[in-house]
Write a structure and sequence with these properties.
Glycosyl transferase family 2, single chain, 9 strands, alpha/beta, two-stranded antiparallel ribbon
Length: about 325
């Protein structure tokens, strides 16, 4: 199989992001043509000055930096906005999914530690399945399937990512499972069940921690060419990609369950195994970033010192944003 492209969205965590891309490159560079690194318009804790630092760490990698004009975090734009490319590109991974000229695009969170050639193993599995192409029956994606920890069918030991195709409950049976096990997003489940989103189950999706997506299948079926809503939004589902997954599966496309462990660790420097809490808890953010930095230094992946010119550039960016924030606060005070 030919080389593929990679896409990662950067929302803070420069040291985590460096760990992710440098370890991915270490183990899987032979498969990679280009990396799309999407720098979100808004950055947590005003850490805009970290972008030049990250660029310095990744200076030897084949990266195209992308700067979308819109930022949705965990939300979605209005569906009517999807005809506008710039608004569409604010969705996670969307720019690369529309621009890549490769058959597959590898998506990854920016807080991963790659310890083996996960990408190569996924490509080999797709090849064995004979899943290339864009017609129904092709492999639309491969990766860990299902947020099973949130699913009542998993709690009942009836389903998991390896057998999601086989457990097909009736509407009434699924409602009974939600009643019995009361999953964290039960109210969303009920709404989806009422809309006949029965199978795959509401928590079924291709998890984007580390997955391959078939680009021709995506473009053929997804807005703006097709009618399926993009991967990078929760829309009317439980999470990012759930409605996309459900729609493509029911058009006859195939998804392969391929857990990333033990080839990759997700959020390896977090004490809770999740990266999202660090977006709103600064102490957790700071401590996990220190862990990522220590890993990079101990494995000689980054230098101990950075150039003086880079330090000046970072300071200039910090000063610019401090002045901007001060002026905004002053304006609010005067208007109030």
């Amino acid at each position: 199989m030919n080389q593929i492209d990679v896409c990662i969205n950067y929302y803070g965590k420069p040291y985590h992001t460096a760990v992710t891309l440098l370890t991915l490159w270490k183990h899987s560079s032979k498969h990679i043509h280009k990396i799309y690194l999407v720098i979100e318009k808004i950055q947590p804790y005003y850490q805009y000055d970290a972008v030049p630092l990250l660029k310095y760490f990744l200076r030897d990698l084949p990266i195209e930096y992308v700067y979308p004009q819109y930022f949705y975090y965990s939300g979605n734009p209005e569906e009517s906005w999807l005809s506008d490319p710039e608004k569409r590109y604010g969705l996670k991974y969307q720019y690369a999914l529309e621009k890549s000229d490769k058959e597959f695009l590898f998506l990854s969170h920016n807080d991963c530690l790659y310890e083996d050639d996960l990408l190569g193993k996924m490509l080999e599995r797709v090849k064995k399945e004979g899943g290339a192409g864009a017609a129904p029956g092709a492999v639309a994606g491969i990766g860990l399937i299902g947020q099973c920890w949130n699913c009542p069918a998993f709690s009942a030991k009836l389903c998991d990512g390896s057998r999601f195709e086989n457990f097909v409950p009736t509407k009434e049976e699924l409602k009974e499972l939600v009643d019995t096990y009361n999953p964290p997003r039960a109210q969303i489940h009920y709404k989806l069940i009422d809309r006949e989103i029965i199978h795959p189950l509401p928590e079924c999706r291709l998890n984007e921690y580390a997955c391959l997506v078939n680009v021709p299948v995506y473009r053929k079926n997804v807005v703006p060419t097709g009618d399926i809503l993009p991967f990078g939004g929760s829309w009317h589902g439980t999470d990012w990609g759930a409605i996309w997954f459900h729609s493509l599966f029911n058009r006859g496309y195939k998804f392969i369950n391929f857990p990333f462990e033990p080839h990759m660790q997700h959020a390896p420097f977090s004490n809770n195994g999740s990266g999202h809490r660090a977006d709103t808890e600064f102490d957790l953010y700071k401590n996990s970033e220190e862990g990522a930095k220590a890993y990079l230094l101990s494995h000689s992946l980054i230098p101990k010192d950075i150039p003086f010119a880079l330090k000046l550039e970072r300071q200039a960016i910090r000063t610019k944003h401090q002045i901007r924030n001060t002026l905004i606060k002053l304006k609010v005070k005067l208007m109030g």
